[in-house]
Fold this sequence. Notes:
Layout: H1 3-12, H2 18-32, E1 38-41, E2 55-58, E3 61-64, E4 70-73, E5 76-81, E6 84-89, H3 97-106, E7 110-111, E8 115-118, H4 126-137
Antiparallel strand pairs: 1-2, 2-5, 3-4, 5-6, 6-8, 7-8
Amino acid sequence: MNVQAQIENYIAGQPQPKRDDLQTLHRMALAASPNCRLWFLDGRNDAGKVVTNPNIGYGVQTKRYANGDVKEFYRVGLSANTSGISVYIMGLSDKKHLSQTYGQTLGKAKITGYCVSFRSLKDVNLGVIERMVADHLSKEAASVA
């Protein structure tokens, strides 16, 4: 199954109204970067054990680890969880960037160094989420974090 089909199945498998919220966020990310690389991570590690919620990813960045390994990963991620939805902004060097840049106007959301979590889209300012995602996807895709 290709990535687009995996994403569609994942979104379709969510209960309402979370399904509609995920679909809105997915369309928004695609509108921000129509030709970005799409990812779907099913939440399983190399041994097949579930270790996280499934994630939809958008864009690509190259991460260089201290041991010299280099790995590609998505720039923006989207995931449903038991308490709502999380939007991941990966590769930020300043862990206060999200809260300082978007926190005052975002609405009812929890912001960590790279993640914005909320119950539903009605709790947050969608325009702020859209700007946050577009800002990060517009950065050079091959940047080294």
